[in-house]
Amino acid sequence: MKRFYQQVAILPAESDAGYVVMLDGKALSTPGKTQLVLASAGLAAAIAEEWAAQEGEVRPASMPLTRLAATATDRVAAARAAVIDELMRFAATDLLCYRAEEPDALRARQAALWQPLLDWSSARFGAELRTVAGLMPQPQPEAALAALRAGVEALDDLALTGLMVATAAAGSLVVGLALTEGRISGEEAFAVSQLDESYQIEQWGEDAEAAARRAALKEDLLAVERFLALRAR
């Protein structure tokens, strides 16, 4: 759509603690028609900057923080249980638990980058996940899955939104939780979750379609990192 506003401002929310972004004096709403109330001044300022930066046309793809905040309001807050159930499906077949059978160089990289995160998950949540060589699905201990669920359920709506996007981008709940909790950065989350692909690129090169897909995944992870940092400022 064409840019339909001239002025962007931030005001304290009237009906709730937090802030709202104003477009020509009207509070910004989500696609679900709910007023977008932001928990922190830092997040509100960053979202206001996204809207102020639009020139000529409003391009939602260029406003990741707005999209994350709207998702938290429209989807996650209204359907936490469903979101958590979906996240737990990632835990049942977490990327970090499936190691290559060969070559040895790839197996060594997986052990070096993936095992520390599984060890962290065990220490942080009491979730001891099993690893296996190959791609055949392996059931995880119910106690480990229950421990991860408890950790996920403890998150607020904004953190749960970030976790949802990060987990989908990484293909791993453990990686998503590590990013959400500040154990790793967005750059590290990308490197860890794309380890197999990066190894294959070293051997065979990368085509344009794969490069574009990887770039989009990296953008998602970096956006989540920034979103989570701003929610507390």
Overview of this structure, please?
The chain has 233 residues and is mainly alpha-helical. It folds into two domains: 8-61, ATP12-like; 80-230, ATP12 ATPase (ATP12-like fold), CATH 1.10.3580. The chain is built from ten helices and five strands. The chain has helices spanning 41-52, 64-76, 80-92, 104-125, 142-153, 157-170, 173-180, 186-193, 195-204, 208-230, and strands at 8-12, 19-23, 26-27, 98-99, 132-133. The strands form two sheets. It has a three-stranded antiparallel beta sheet. β1 and β2 form a beta hairpin. α3 (80-92) runs parallel beside α6. The longest helix has 23 residues, at 208-230. It is globular. The two termini are 31 Å apart. 34% of the residues are buried. The mean pLDDT is 95.
Number of strands: 5
Cα end-to-end separation? 31 Å
**Percentage of residues in helical conformation:** 55-70%
The amount of beta strand, in percent, is 5-15%
User: Radius of gyration from the CA trace?
Assistant: 20 Å
Q: How many domains make up the coordinates?
A: 2
Order of SSEs, N→C? EEEHHHEHEHHHHHH
Total number of helical segments?
10
Largest sheet: 3 strands, antiparallel
Shape-level CATH architecture of the largest domain: Orthogonal Bundle
